[in-house]
Write a structure and sequence with these properties.
Layout: H1 5-27, H2 29-55
Length: 56
C-alpha cells in the first residue's frame, strides 16, 4: 500500500491549525467570551429544555 504524501500533508496541516485555533478559544478571554460562552449557553439551554419536556 502506497501513501499519498500530498493529501496526508494537507490533512496534517489542517488538523494542526484546528488544534491551535481551538486552544486559542480556551486561552484568550475575548475569544472565549465572544465565541465559546454563547455556544455553551445554547447547548445548556437545549439540555434544560429537553429535561423539562421529558419531565412533563
Amino acid at each position: 500500500v502506497r501513501e499519498n504524501k500530498g493529501s496526508m500533508l494537507i490533512a496534517m496541516i489542517f488538523l494542526a491549525c484546528l488544534c491551535v485555533l481551538m486552544g486559542l478559544l480556551v486561552i484568550v478571554p475575548s475569544l472565549r467570551a465572544n465565541i465559546l460562552d454563547p455556544a455553551v449557553k445554547v447547548l445548556m439551554d437545549g439540555v434544560l429544555y429537553s429535561a423539562n419536556v421529558i419531565g412533563m
